[in-house]
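Handout, tutorial session.
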Amino acid sequence: MLYWISLALILATNVVAFTDPPPSESKESSNLPFQCQARAWVRAPDMVPGEVIAGDVKIKLSGSCMDAESYALGLRYKEKVFWKLRREDAPIPKTPKLTYNRTSMNSDLFKVRRPFGDPGNVDYNETEWKAYEDSVQNKDLWSIHEEERTAFEIKSPLTDAGRDPLSSSSTTQFGVLVPNTNYPPGLDCRVGFMFTGGTTDMISSESIYEYFVEIRFSNGTTSEIPAGMTAFAPFYLPKENNAPSVNVSLSPGPVHPGSNVKPSIDELRSNYTIEVSFPEGTNVYRNSSVNITAIVHRTGYTNRTETPVQLCAFSENDIEWHSQELQNRSQPFLPPTKLLVPSVDPVQHWGFSQGMPPRPVCHSPCREIKFAATPAPLTHEGHVFSSSSEPLSLSLCVNHDAVPDFSTYYQKLGHRVKLNLHIAPDPSEPWDNKFEKINWEKQIADVDESDWVPWTPTPTRRRFLSGDASVLSVIPTQQAPLLSTPVHYLSDKARQPVFVDSSDIADLRLMSLEERDLIAPLAQPSIKVFAKGEELSRRYCTGGDMRYPIYVGDTWVKKV
């Protein structure tokens, strides 16, 4: 049951409120006191190439809606790309030095603090900081672009069209004929939040299959109500399951996520590479695991006491951007990308803080590393020496909502193996973070007090190296056999879905794929470039409530 809650929440979800009469060609809710309130829901299975699916749409009007004349059900697929790139000829200045004064909170009870972001206990050169801030915020030194491609948009009148007065509550069955065309997998736009500011380049994409209801009023205007998002399950041809062996170079990450501060340079640090092999091949099904074998190779000075402790491996999204502007541009952190799949448990009426219901997550355990001892005659001399660990066997887990490989208009979706090496560094190595050094030294000094405090000291210093290899191929768990291979949605021969009457579904399913494809028209995609100043990094899921847009596959599972 959906609850009637505050108007602020209602307008942010799948509800639209209209003034009387509605604004001309308006597709947005009005901020004026409403007289006609509309809500819409769809429940339907995911689309599959060459299938005919059945679904239901429910529309509910309340208030004074006498001017509403007809309904139409719509379905579209949109995808977009956004980037904010620093001009290569205008590098960002080095971050000014900040000094944290831990006593200033008490020493100056009358200090006037800056209203944004200054905790009051930071000392810095205001002139240097202002120059740095001005450089980062100078929009002329950044390239900002947002572009959206609509692959298809279809509409169909509902049975209530033309009825006077229009029913205030109606439920209608509908059908969708899906052509034998492979569209991209449906992604969950409710996840994937990423930091939108700062000094780093930002590249993001979104896509959504969305149902909507269009209401036409007596004065000729229309308004649109979101009715939920759906998904597409593309067909995958069998792929050769290669079993390659790759060498992965490791390097330290940035000192702080989202910053341009690089780790300190120590010429005496050892170099590490990891030899990774895939005895079972690189094809891995969603919600399963694949075994890998790893050997850690170290080259460094023999009189250094750094020790590799453990190796962790996990799968990670991999994106290859197609736009020329994005070539050789990288982001230190990619936002998570998840497939839209029906919830394991029925969705309850979750609150804002609870988000989505929990789903099972598989874990890839780490493994301890064992190296042979350095030859005794070399331990006290500065010789360069290479050594290798014993082979490690790790289980690489892929979640049930991992996105299968697919090439879209803006990007190529894939997966990579991410490797993290944990090292106990040599005591002489420089620290990358001054405050971590202070805290660590204090814990070492206070280690004899561990029995008298409620926390456990962590006197063991660690640093991390990471690397990756784009070799994984994630494929669906089950696929029904197809008599004909689908065409790719970017092909000139691609066709778009079409609404059909629910009473015709049984007969359509008896037709051949070729006959059904003749009913679906050729796709006619369109592209929109947003004007300067109107660009948004996120556009499809912005409400902050993880329940919306509703995934209609979840409500379909509840029905069946």
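The second record follows below. Compare its token runs with those of the first.
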Amino acid sequence: MLSVLRVHLPSDIPIVGCELTPYVLLRRTDKTLTTDDVLESAPIDGHFLRYKWYRIQSDRKVAICSVHPSEQATLQCLGCVKAKLPVSKSYHCSTKCFSDAWQHHRALHDRAASALNENGTEEEELFGRFNSSGSLPSAASSPSLINGSTPLYPASVPQRSGGETWFEVGRSKTYTPTADDIGHVLKFECVVVDAETKLPVGHVSTLLTSRVIPAPSPSPRRLIPVNGVDMMIGGHLDPEGRVSSAGTFTVLSYNILSDVYATNDVYSYCPSWALSWPYRRQNLLREIVGYRADIVCLQEVQSDHFEEYFAPELDKHGYQALYKRKTSEVYSGNTQPIDGCATFFRRDRFSHVKKYEVEFNKAAQSLTEAVVPSAQKKTALSRLVKDNVALIVVLEAKFTNQGADNPGKRQLLCVANTHVNVHHDLKDVKLWQVHTLLKGLEKIAVSADIPMLVCGDFNAVPGSAPHALLAMGKVDPMHPDLANDPLGILRPAGKLTHQLPLVSAYSSFARMGVGIGLEQHRRRMDPSTNEPLFTNCTRDFLGTLDYIFYTADSLTVESLLELLDEDSLRKDTALPSPEWSSDHIALLAEFRCKPRTRR
């Protein structure tokens, strides 16, 4: 007979909006084991599985700490109550918790007061994803059980036991906690049922979760126009819900931290529930969708996550998806998932014209064949053959700002999305990869007079040779990075040039005039490099690795997504954290195409 051997959850801390999928190990009649679901419509040996989820409500109310959501609150900030902030933001688990979080917490008070002074009331704008009880809006308030993928069931009668009430909330294997579950324990039941009699056979397997916690919600990041008048993502949007105005478009670049790299060993400071992929994926999606970018360039997207999650989910929001996975030579004989670069664009704003794929491995093999002596070929390939790639997409805009003097002219745009090699001791390989990409883009530029964007994680800090090549168009022959060139691939140094007029979008912060609030944005920039102080923040590293470069002869920067403050991130030690689900921060810029002149 079919029997249940074991049930458990990958994480026992449930979060609102994050689907729970129990692991259920079964033994068939022939003694073989399986984790496949056994539905009533497809029984095995005359039996199927029946599932139930319950919310256990104690007669005693429980408040959750806003900083450490797995802890119960012991005190409440009355300033939050007075400022009419969401109640969930006001709770803390200890005086130390409240003291440590005060600097960040006070900013919530200041922002709420500012919004109230300027616009009367902007609670919904600032904290629109919360309801008046301080929790996330419930996905459904229907008395029927609709959670999961099984058909609707009528509401069941609650059961009471020893000061607790059990509410049945689901009848499928999976369950997604709602705002009604916050602060309560969930119970999962699984039992084998006879397909004929519909009666349970054998014992009921159960598990209890920890208390359900609300999904942390970071304060919205503002979009800062270069004229100094700021607006808020999720706030002052145009009638169609977009940040960009007529004739402009927005581009997002974000390394989302592949699940295969997000290990507890590397990021031990991040709570395990916040590091789990089921939580991170929904938090990342919520963040990405919230930016409403017209073009989205993501790095470290696992191929299975692209196909099964990001492509279908972003399709629902009007995005077309393109993907280039890393080349697999480095994983030969390994089943480890492979990540890559994914580019999405709004179908109502752009149409797809052409796609180019850059595989640095193929370029490495060609280079080795051409310039490396036979005796050194194996050593050269070992050093050069990494699995990094770039995805280049040519798009046509469905909007125009060309004016009446240029009617009907197509507005094309070339967007490169890349993730350059990470190893610190392979500076020659990093520089060679960037140079190879730029030479490819030059060929496209020669064939078409087209604005260009070069986005991604370049694993190169400002002032490094790759950054100099991108931003200055050349590398100083005396640059220290050129000293490490065992294969001679960087010589002569004079060849390390390109003709694309590239400028880093975030350097616009350094060129902005005087304005209210601009000084705080400048403080998040490095005045010696005109780049952000950091785009990657872990316990062991703080620095800038990510960039959005644009061709300054054909594009102008209209606005930039504000940078994050290090102090606000250090309250959780570093990234990733419950609020931000990658170790990198997202960069976003709004551009306008310049009127085209013949070169």
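Points raised in discussion: Confidence is low (pLDDT under 50) at residues 118-146, 149-155, 234-242.
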